[in-house]
Specification:
By secondary structure, the chain is of the alpha/beta class. It has 10 helices and 16 strands. The chain has 3 domains: 8-108, Rossmann fold (3-Layer(aba) Sandwich); 149-207, Signal transduction histidine kinase, dimerisation/phosphotransfer (DHp) domain (Helix Hairpins); 216-377, Histidine kinase-like ATPase, C-terminal domain (Heat Shock Protein 90). The strands form 5 sheets. Strands 2-1-3-4-5 form a 5-stranded parallel sheet, sandwiched between helices. Strands 7-10-11-13-12 form a 5-stranded mixed sheet, covered by helices on one side. A two-stranded antiparallel ribbon has the order 6-9.
Length: 379
């Protein structure tokens, strides 16, 4: 909403003598003064040319509360000064709650009125300046994010695209070679196309509102299934431990993708440690919130990288090993489920990722957490 180029004050009062008296006092401050006699006139006047501040005489305007609410709806930054009867404490409190900058007692002292109006105008300037700064920073951040996103898309799609083109060209140039070689070229081309399709699908998932299935699943079973799926191919000899306290609780089925990503990242962090690598999964609750912590004893994350881990396409993995969309998508899914993802890390001391979720059903202790899960330790 545009503002007037010079500072003006809109005076709203039902009685003509009140409007003239207030306008006369405030004209001596050098302000431009406009007047309105009722709610509709005040709203119409403000909509056509927003005033720097609005002075409302609640004593001569029966629906002063309505004026306040509707002006704040029209412009959340509207600066409102109210004049109310000194004895009407309840009404004064209500007006303050509805967004009044200041409430003056009636009859109003002219000098105090001038001081309050000056402060209101200063408040309005600061508020509008801060909003303009926030809008400018928001636009800059959005543009920067678009730039990083475009760069990431180009980088991630360029490598598999070059591979596809190369293998298709090799197939064209070697049509006389054995069928086995040609099949291998085409398999590699299809693999590159598959990678590009996966990147596009992840981008679509990140850019739109993630649809969360209504179905839920037992958290314990879900964690065990994720570990069974990832351990054979991703552990590189590292141990995966599922520790107490452990609980039986239902969580949205979408959490499978989130947990799989967090545990996969932890396994990647310890793969260079071989048998010395350790990933520990713990579950805790306080009756209202559930905390699933995935801890690894890898090399940790630098403070610079930690600030960027939720940026789309940011990854510390080698080219071809990650798109940098896993954590942003996981964070989006967690938020849609009413939860959040928080990361604690220090170089040389490993990383702990906390997935917090609201508990929507009674939490009961598991019957047992002893035993082994396909070679994965549960302690």
């Amino acid at each position: 909403m545009s503002r007037a180029t010079t500072e003006t004050l809109l005076v709203v009062a039902g009685a003509r003598e009140d409007r003239e008296a207030l306008a006369g006092i405030l004209r001596r401050t050098g302000l431009g003064i406009r007047v309105a006699s009722d709610t509709d006139e005040a709203l119409d006047c403000y909509a056509r040319d927003p005033a720097a501040a609005v002075l409302i005489d609640a004593g001569s305007l029966p629906d002063a509360g309505e004026v306040t609410v509707r002006l704040r709806t029209l412009d959340p930054d509207a600066v409102l000064v109210i004049i109310a009867a000194a004895a009407d404490v309840e009404k004064t409190v209500a007006l303050m709650r509805e967004g009044a900058f200041h409430v003056l007692d009636k009859p109003v002292d002219p000098e105090k009125l001038k001081v309050v109006v000056v402060k209101a105008l200063e408040h309005g300037r600061l508020s509008r300046g801060n909003r303009a700064l926030r809008d400018q920073l928001d636009i800059s951040e959005r543009l920067a994010m678009i730039g990083r996103l475009a760069s990431g898309v180009a980088h991630e799609l360029n490598n598999p695209l070059d591979g596809v083109r190369r293998y298709v060209k090799m197939t064209q140039e070697n049509l006389e070679e054995s069928a086995g070689d040609l099949a291998d070229y085409l398999d590699r081309a299809l693999s590159g196309l598959g990678r590009m399709a996966s990147i596009v699908q992840q981008l679509l998932t990140f850019s739109r509102n993630v649809v969360i299935e209504n179905e839920s699943e037992n958290l314990r079973s879900m964690v065990e299934e994720v570990v069974r799926t990832l351990a054979p191919s991703g552990s590189h000899g590292a141990s995966i431990e599922i520790e107490n306290p452990y609980v039986v609780v239902q969580v949205p089925r979408a959490m499978f993708q989130v947990l799989a990503n967090l545990i996969k990242n932890a396994l990647h962090a310890v793969e260079d440690l071989g048998a010395r690598g350790r990933v520990r999964i713990t579950v805790a609750h306080d009756g209202q919130k559930l905390d699933v912590a995935v801890n690894d004893n890898g090399s940790g994350i630098t403070p610079e990288d930690l600030r960027r881990v939720f940026e789309p396409f940011f990854t510390t993995k080698d080219v071809g090993q990650g798109t940098g969309l896993g954590l942003p998508i996981s964070a989006r899914i967690a938020e849609r489920c009413g939860g959040a993802i928080r990361i604690e890390s220090e170089p040389g001391r490993g990383t702990t990722v906390h997935l917090t979720l609201p508990v929507s059903a009674p939490v009961t202790p598991s019957l047992s957490s002893a035993g082994h899960l396909h070679g994965v330790q549960q302690s």
